[in-house]
Amino acid sequence: MALTASNHGDIDESQVPGTVHLVDLEHTMVTRHAKDQKDIVLVPTPSADPDDPLNWTPRRKYLALTCALLYTWFNGMALSVVYSVLVPLSTALSVTEADLNAGTGYMFLLLGWGLLFWQPFALQYGKRLTYLLSLLALMAVTVWGPYARGNGQWIANRVLTGFFAAPIEALPETSIADLFFAHERATYMGWYAFTLAGSNFFAPIICGFINDGVGYGWVFYFQAIFCAATWVFLFFFMEETNYDRRTVGIVAESNDGVVESGPDAEKGKEAPADRSDAVERTPSPEGRPTVSSKTFWQKMSIIDKPRPFMMHYRAWQSLKLLSWPVVFYSGFSYGTYLIYFNILNATSSIILGGPPYNFRPSLVGLSYVSCMIGVAAASAFTGVFSDRFIIRIARKNNGISEPEHRLWLFAVSTLVIPSSLILWGVGAAHEVHWFGLIFAMGTTAFANTMGVTLSVSYLIDTYRDISGDALTTCILIRNTMSFAIGYGITPWLNNLGYQNCFISVAFVGLAICCVFLVMIKWGKTFREMKRLDYWQEVKKRIDLGLVH
Prior knowledge:
Shape: globular
Distance between the termini: 23 Å
Structural class: mainly alpha
Strand order of the largest sheet: 1-2
Helix content: 55-70%
Order of helices and strands: EHHHHHHHHHHHHHHHHEHHHHH
Oligomer: single chain
Mean pLDDT: 85
Number of strands: 2
């Protein structure tokens, strides 16, 4: 069933958030359709404004996407410099391995809670400004890294790193939601997941060799140089994607882009005699004017247009969303899969660098190539395949798409996670051949990346119009969970040993991963519970010009 909003605040509150008429099987819907797939409805319906990011030309969209992905890649690398050099870094900085991992835990805590400032700031003053400030500050803090000797300085460095890098956790996903439609969004979320997880796994590959070649200090300096180069690129090429949207959902309209509310709109809901005519009446964004009215320097403006000051409201709203079941589940799911990533990173240098393997830091880093392969496979599976999967399911469901359709893909990671963790931990305890451990790293990375894409896509599919704040809530949950495991993994490992530790982790993980079945069964009921609250919030935001 389609949602129609012809004017701001004119919303059908009977619609369950997230349920959309994605496939126009009978070609009867008088609204915008995709150019290459005539029966795919564009959700949300873009405006007639060529400066609406949904209406941008493919080249303009891909340039904005490239900027967001470059930010994610090099920000993510700066966050992951320590994983393959844990042992030599501990000696150089006079910080124990347990405290190094504890510092990583504090960093993840601030990566989440820092969003209570950065996400409202980005939606208030502009995403472009936020990207640039974040990179500039992260570059400075990264340079400080090799001088952070002692536990106190190291913790302070990690806390500041987490705070200034925090936009990486939610801002790129919000930018992707600004640029792309429901039927294609997961593909680009897959690209984001690849750069987010891939950067975390690629950094240890090169950092091990940097440490062996020129010392641990340059592990940090190279990342600062990369951040500086990315800043320059973003300064000259990244456009602002904030856009004050006056409609939400699917909007009925005529060829000239005017919303129809009279007899013609009702007539369009009936099956026409000539289906090709129905498609002709529903042009794609490529058929609209795409020449921007902005000059180059207007596009490159540092500060976005003025809006009512709502940073405090958005931060409070992000905390209120903790009680929304779909938002909480998305954060819990995301956090669960991130925990496996943290466990892997916290133990890789210890296991592979110790007997009987005795890998040098460069070889510990090289082992992360396996993780990169897993990340690439998962990004394709939960991206391109995921979008095709939900379209196919929608065709079988009378054109209706439900957010829970995408969750069926979690069945794969639910099987992969426990088997990978048992191979990693029990294999290390019994000193299996190193290839077994490398294989386990790759499959764990595969499942971790699945958790990134599917959890975020499910949240945005459900609550797209408040996704900026809902993503903050999701990351708060995720990173609080990550903080706990980062702080406790080393004593957990020391007290239980490899075998018992990872057997317990595997079976706890299996139980937690199976929660997706609960959401498939009752997810729509949970969405119905918050239906009125959601639409009231959307109406309020439309009136204030806060829907992007």
